[in-house]
Amino acid sequence: MTDSQKLETSRKPRKPLWRRILKWTLRVAVVLVVLLIGVWSVWNYVAARSLRNEINSISAAGEPLTFRELADSIDKVDEADDAGPYYAAALALLRRANQDKRDEVQKKLNKVVEKASPAPPELLADAQRLIEDNRLALEMLDQGLAMPGCNYDIGIEYGISVCLPRLSSARDMARTVSLRTELLALRGQGDKAVDSAISSLRMLRMFDRQPVMICCLVKIACLSLFIADVPVILEFGRPSAEALGRLQDALGEAEKSIDLKRMWIAERVYSMEIMRNLISGRRELEAGSDFSLPIPERWPSRLASPFTRTMATHTLQMHARFIAVAGKDWPEVLDAMRAIAAQQRPSALGTLGQSLIPAFERATVILGRTLATVRSARLAIMIERYRHARGKLPQSLAEIETAQKSPLDPFTGKALIYRKTDDGYKVFSLGDDRKENNKAKLNSGDGTDWGVYIRLLPAPPEQ
After folding, report:
1. CA distances from 447 to 112, 358, 419, 432 (A)
2. Could you give the strand order of the β-sheet that contains 424-429, starting from the edge strand earlier in sequence?
3. Which residues pair with 453 in a beta bridge?
């Protein structure tokens, strides 16, 4: 055998092409997996450290990180002074089966008020029956009025599914109290109508321990129901000067409870709770020692942890910007909020934070409008007290400011507008567009003025 033949026989046979391709494909895949694991690990470490630093800065500032800390950030009330159990009982006793009938009766009463015509006796009887159906619930609510504090837990810690039924019941309760207030005013029982309205105002304390955005929006919806009742009380009820003073004080307390900064802090706690569940993979929060409740905010995969942590950091940074401007006075806080919204740029990793911007900007506007109507109602009561004492309307707000200063327009920082009309007067804010809109009805939506319109009507006959 020749040397060339020996060399040829000693060579290994060449592998097929497909086997060589498969071999290199596996090698490349292994390298890519190792690189991805490395990148994922580094990203996860950096994201975790950034999130931890952000949380540490919140803690160092003495701001709450959990719902328990949020609730403990306001004075806790002794059990004997707590209105919470009364409000819980009132919501449990509320008969919601007749809410359609209640809404129908209230619409008819509103038409009577609008036309300033005598209410038909059968309509008043229907309203009275609805009030009697909920007598026990209203009694519990009224008993809570005298309690100095409230520890009521709206349940947001355990998820939206727990919180929403309570919020819905609170809204229904506010509607029922509003019906009672209007009925008393139409019957000329002004002082009792004031007491009913104050009871409704005090009920709003149940939202204050965990004032996330959804709770605040329901709270101001209930407050708006009351503000709509103020003209009815003043026009038909003719309350005494002493009752007007109590009503003015109750409105002042309600105004102080509209706390934009606390709402944003609560919303940050809620976002942190969502992210905490996403990162840890928890599927539920313990609501007690013997049962648990599912929450809707969950992410099934832990592979997204770096993304989730990065998104959480961006979200907390966004919240920090909101909270930083929340301490400003009106209208600077609205301008600052709009400036934040204008400066933001789309970010794939800041999805949750970015989604908060329009919601928070809109919530700020809504809170400002509610504040405008509350201040307008307070000023209207001041005018009524002046009219009762002097027998005439003031020519300008300067005439009523000898004893106390009138509230300012939250959207302009200037005095609310007081204007006489042919049948009474109106007090209003220019609204978020900061322009007077004479042709539009007050409180009718975007681009309108926000306040109250009071007619000077003769005292209604005794019913």
Report:
1. 27, 18, 19, 8
2. 417-420, 424-429, 450-455
3. 426
Residue 11 confidence (pLDDT): 56
Residues 226 and 99 in one domain: yes
66/83 Cα distance (integer angstroms): 24
Q: State which H helix or E strand residue 426 sits in.
A: strand 424-429
Are residue 38 and residue 100 in the same domain, yes or no? no
d(CA 380, CA 228): 13
For residue 174, pLDDT beyond 60: yes
Calculate the alpha carbon distances from 157 to 133, 255, 296 in Å.
33, 26, 12
Angular region, 406: left φ>0, alpha ψ -120 to 50, beta rest: beta
- Residue 103: both structure tokens together: 């809404």
122: domain range?
Answer: 80-257
Our count of domains for the chain comes to: 3
Q: Enter the tokens of residue 16.
A: 């097929």
Distance CA 255, CA 327 (A): 15
In a domain, 107, yes or no: yes
In a domain, 317, yes or no: no
Average pLDDT of the chain, as a whole number = 84
Residue at 68 is within a domain = no
Are 271 and 245 members of one domain? no
Per-residue pLDDT of 59-108, as tens digits, reads 898 898 888 888 888 877 888 899 999 999 999 999 877 788 888 999 99
Using the predicted structure, report yes or no on whether residue 299 has a pLDDT greater than 90.
no
Are 279 and 294 in a shared domain? yes
CA distances from 258 to 203, 225, 255, 261, 324 (A): 14, 16, 5, 9, 17
pLDDT digits (tens, 9 = 90+) for 397-423: 888 876 567 889 999 999 999 999 999
Please answer whether residues 419 and 456 qualify as being in contact, where contact means their C-beta atoms are separated by less than 8 angstroms.
no
In this prediction, residue 171 has a pLDDT band, given cuts at 50, 70 and 90, of: very high
What is the reported pTM? 0.84
- Does residue 302 sit in the same domain as residue 412? no
146 and 206 fall within a common domain: yes
**3-class SS of residue 417:** strand
CB 280 within 8 A of CB 231: no
Q: Can you list the positions of beta strands (E) in 326-400?
A: none
Q: Which residues does residue 320 pair with via DSSP β-bridges, in sequence order?
A: none
Whole-number pLDDT of residue 285: 38
DSSP 424: E
Identify whether 139 is part of a domain.
yes
The verdict on 377 and 441 lying in the same domain is yes
Cα–Cα nearest to 211, from 363, 370, 336, 356: 363
In this structure, are 146 and 276 located in the same domain? no
- Scanning the structure block, which residue is given the tokens 């690990």? 41
